[in-house]
Specification:
The protein has about 180 residues and is an all-alpha fold. It is about 85% helix and about 0% strand. The model has no long low-confidence stretch (mean pLDDT about 90).
């Protein structure tokens, strides 16, 4: 029963987390056997104490740093997007000398970023949450650095809405840089 429990965790969680829970299970099982329970009863008591493996996996998913980071970026994303919309509209960006493919590529990158972050914020499998969160962070950093670079190179003049949008993206880049280590850990 304990082995099956550990196998269920190992199938869904990274080895480090599955091993941590396995150690706890072994200790609890040994404690139950020391209390005089036979092997089967001790295993049943241990599994009952820890709860259903799916519930344990779901708890790890909810606590995953990638999920929290993705949720934060999804919440702040519209604010940064509104800053960029205001900056590009007020500076008449449609008249800038930009290759036609640039807005398409940036739009596609934005879509991929949103999908990755949304997946990380809502997936029920730990590995999916981690991978999507990591991809979302990388995409977000690429998107912000690309749009900052493009605007600073192409904009005929820099006025306060552009400075605000650049500052918002730069601040988000700093947050991504701080968040990336726990997401990849």
């Amino acid at each position: 029963m304990i082995r099956e429990y550990n196998e269920a965790l190992a199938a869904e969680l990274p080895a480090r987390l599955a091993d941590e829970v396995a150690d706890g299970l072994a200790e609890a099982n040994a404690k139950n056997m020391a209390l005089g329970l036979d092997q089967d009863d001790a295993a049943q008591a241990t599994v009952a104490e820890f709860g259903d493996p799916a519930a344990v996996i779901a708890a790890f998913c909810r606590a995953c740093p990638a999920r929290k980071v993705a949720a934060n970026f999804l919440t702040t994303g519209p604010v940064v997007g509104a800053c960029w919309a205001a900056a590009l509209i007020t500076s008449r960006a449609w008249a800038w000398p930009v290759p036609a493919v640039a807005p398409v590529l940036l739009g596609a990158m934005l879509a991929v970023t949103v999908v990755a972050l949304r997946t990380a914020a809502s997936a029920r499998r730990y590995r999916v949450v981690r991978r999507a969160g990591a991809a979302g962070c990388v995409c977000l950093a690429t998107l912000d650095s690309s749009v900052i670079s493009a605007v600073l190179i192409v904009a005929p003049s820099i006025h306060w809405p552009i400075l605000l949008a650049v500052s918002a993206s730069a601040a988000r880049l700093c947050v991504v840089a701080r968040a990336i280590r726990p997401v990849f850990a």
